[in-house]
Amino acid sequence: MGDLFKKIPTIKLPYKADNLPKQPIGKYELPCLTSSFQNQGLNYYAPTDNATVLQNVISIPSNSDVYRAYYQSRPFTILSDAYAICWKREEEELSPNQYLFIVMCINKVTDLAIYSYKNKLGGWNVVQDKNILLPIKQGKIDLDFMENFIAELEAQYIAELEAYLSITGLKDTHLTLEEEQVLRDFDKIHWGEFNVEDLFGNSTRGKRLKSTDRIPGTLPFVTAGEASEGVSAFIGNDVRQFSSNTTTVDMFGSAKYRNYPYGGDDHIAVVHTENLPEYAAIFVTTAIHKSAHNGQFDYGRNCYAKDVDALTIFLPITEANTPNYDLMKTIISGIHKLVIQDVVTYSTKKAEATKKVINN
Fold first, then answer.
1. In the chain, where does DSSP find H-type helix?
2. What is 46-107 written as a DSSP string?
3. More confident residue, 105 or 337
């Protein structure tokens, strides 16, 4: 890798992640890179002043549980526990598609289960000596193949996406009057504090099942981690099945909504939201995640069921100061439509561009 890429020097920023906003506000508008694998590591915002602004480069964590590289197509800067590399062959300039292809080749040697906080991959001084496999033609790296391969994959996925949206009826993204009103008046919503156990009873801890004891099957088995939303295997063991429409919280405090039956190991706790409307349960999952996933839980201090039960979450309330699940349902329904609306717009533009390329 050191033959192809070089590490980009950056100015060290005088900020800590906890002191930065997680949404752009005022002069805090430049995305900051950390070791997180959520949102491609860009979860905080800093002022542009005195920051090294990067774009069209590859980012890699240097101190993480998952060492996943990403192609960063938009401006950002580096905050901590990560670095950026760029193509160093001056006679060639990589396109976004070529960067995307190479990122996946890099992840074949960095994004491995053997690496974690306890067994770290290391920084660029280690990664630069890693070997990656790339397509070649007549003894040279075949950049044209990479370009065409990613373009064809994108065209294929766009076609599949369009078919899926049509079959499921998700192309109908028209907001109801109630959804429009709720989203427009979001800042006027009244909120209340609630204890998780008071709302949903005792959370249930999963039970350990060693990987060597797992029998292949069809039941999703949830463990701690972000990859595949924590689903580490599909098993056929006779384990307790948790119902769909529930929320899992892993040992790091990361909450995820499950719309399918599943099993779970002892690194997750299950919050019993099964009696809520689906969209309300999704809203609650987000509230739990915001309360639990703030750095208070890690390898040194795991999040257990009792910790989940003790959480305080913020939810919209009725005039009687009870959780307003109908309002939560409407909010998520409206947001869902807006997101799908963006996906439809994106897929339509991509499909039209693909057709032009094919016609030419």
1. 96-110, 124-127, 143-168, 177-184, 196-200, 278-292, 305-309, 325-359
2. EESTT---B-SEEEEESSSS----EEE-S-BEE-SSEEEEEE--TT----HHHHHHHHHHHH
3. 105
Q: What is the pTM for the complete model shown?
A: 0.64
Say whether 275 sits in a helix, a strand or coil.
Answer: coil
Question: Measuring CA to CA, how many Å separate 22 from each of 43, 294, 355?
Answer: 6, 11, 38
Contacts 24+ apart (CB under 8 A), 353-359: 354/151, 354/154, 354/155, 354/158, 357/151, 358/155
User: How many angstroms separate the CA atoms of 237 and 222, rounded?
Assistant: 13
Any residues with CB less than 8 A from the CB of 124 and at least 6 apart, and which? Answer: 7, 60, 62, 83, 85
CB 106 within 8 A of CB 31: no
What is the rounded CA–CA span in Å between residue 113 and residue 91?
Answer: 36
Write the single-letter amino acid at 132: I
The C-alpha atoms of residue 268 and residue 253 are separated, in whole angstroms, by 9
Distance from first CA to last CA of the chain, Å, rounded? 36
Q: What is the predicted pLDDT for the residue at 294?
A: 85
Higher pLDDT, 166 or 70: 70
Count CB-CB contacts under 10 A for residue 49.
Answer: 7
Contact assessment for residue 270 and residue 264, using Cβ atoms and an 8 Å cutoff:
yes
Residue 278 makes CB contacts below 8 A (sequence gap 6+) with 245, 259, 329
Q: Tokens for 110?
A: 């960095």
CA dihedral 345, 351, 354, 358 (to 10 degrees): -150
Nearest to 258 by CA among 310, 220, 218, 204: 220
Going by C-beta distance under 8 Å and a sequence separation of 6 or more, which residues neighbour residue 68? 37, 61, 107, 110, 111
> Residue 199's Cα: distance from chain center in Å?
27
Beta strand 216-222 pairing with 263-264: parallel
Residue range 46-95, pLDDT digits in tens: 999 999 999 999 999 998 888 999 999 999 999 999 999 999 988 888 99
With beta carbons less than 8 A apart as the criterion, state whether 69 and 112 touch.
no
**What phi, psi does 322 have (nearest 5°)?**
-105, 160
